[in-house]
């Protein structure tokens, strides 16, 4: 009988596998009890892709329907790339949303300052946009030393992000290149 891991767990929960293996003297009762008692039993299941590197391993993501919070993430056994496995980095991906120490507010340290101040996004976003525009305008090179068109700025660089998906990564790169940035890197590669 051909069966994937998810199918096995489901079947184990019904006791059918336990009965089948019982004839071999192997008890799967603990497996069935564990599967029935999983906290993710009533959760919403969604498939996704690991955001950390270009391998693109498939994920199963369980969320609490009441709160929308992520309960558990593990490798998708039906995904052709990873067949249920995850590397150590991917195995900790749950922390990208649920890590209690994750910074969710803007922290600003003034030039030569020695402490962080909490700021609002309404304060931060226009300031970031202004600085990008001013820096780009002051440093923009339409041509290089040989007179060849380059349309670039070498006064800014971008690092990021290993916590965004492929589509977001494409949008980020497109925005940066439209500004003329040439120093682009993702910390997933570093
Ligand atoms: S970081 Fe690991 S789990 Fe994530 S896509 Fe890359 S190899 Fe797969």
CATH fold field value of the largest domain: Phosphorylase Kinase, domain 1
List the total number of helices: 7
Instruction: Detail the poorly predicted runs.
Output: none
Radius of gyration: 24 Å
How many strand units? 8
Distinct compounds present: iron/sulfur cluster
Largest β sheet strand count, sense and barrel closure: 3 strands, antiparallel
Fraction of residues in β-strands = 15-25%
Mean pLDDT: 83
Distance between the termini: 44 Å
Residue share in helix:
25-40%
The figure for the number of domains is 3
CATH class of the largest domain: Alpha Beta
From the coordinates shown, what is the CATH architecture of the largest domain? 2-Layer Sandwich
Describe the global form: extended
Account of the protein in words:
- The protein folds into 3 domains: 37 residues, no CATH class; 61 residues, Phosphorylase Kinase, domain 1 (2-Layer Sandwich), CATH 3.30.200.210; 46 residues, no CATH class.
- 35% of the residues lie in helices and 23% in strands.
- The mean pLDDT is 83.
- The strands form 3 sheets. Strands 1-2-3 form a 3-stranded antiparallel sheet, with no helix packed on it. A 3-stranded mixed sheet has the order 6-7-8.
- Helix 1 crosses helix 3.
- By secondary structure, the chain is an alpha+beta fold.
- The structure holds iron/sulfur cluster (SF4).
- The site of iron/sulfur cluster has 11 residues, from helix 4.
């Amino acid at each position: 009988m051909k069966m994937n891991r998810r199918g096995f767990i489901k079947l184990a929960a019904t006791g059918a596998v336990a009965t089948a293996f019982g004839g071999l003297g192997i008890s799967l009762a603990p497996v069935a009890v564990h599967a029935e008692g999983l906290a993710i039993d009533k959760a919403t299941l969604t498939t996704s892709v690991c955001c950390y590197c270009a391998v693109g391993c498939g994920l199963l993501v369980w969320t609490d329907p009441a709160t929308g919070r992520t309960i558990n993430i593990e490798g998708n056994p039906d995904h052709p790339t990873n067949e249920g496995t995850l590397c150590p980095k991917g195995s900790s991906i749950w922390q990208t949303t649920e890590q209690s120490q994750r910074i969710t507010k803007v922290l600003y340290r003034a030039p030569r300052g020695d402490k962080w101040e909490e700021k609002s996004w309404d304060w931060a976003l226009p300031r970031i946009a202004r600085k990008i525009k001013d820096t780009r305008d002051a440093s923009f090179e339409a041509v290089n030393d040989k007179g060849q068109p380059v349309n670039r700025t070498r006064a800014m660089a971008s690092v990021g992000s290993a916590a965004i998906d492929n589509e977001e990564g494409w949008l980020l790169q497109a925005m940066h290149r439209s500004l003329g940035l040439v120093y682009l890197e993702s910390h997933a590669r570093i």
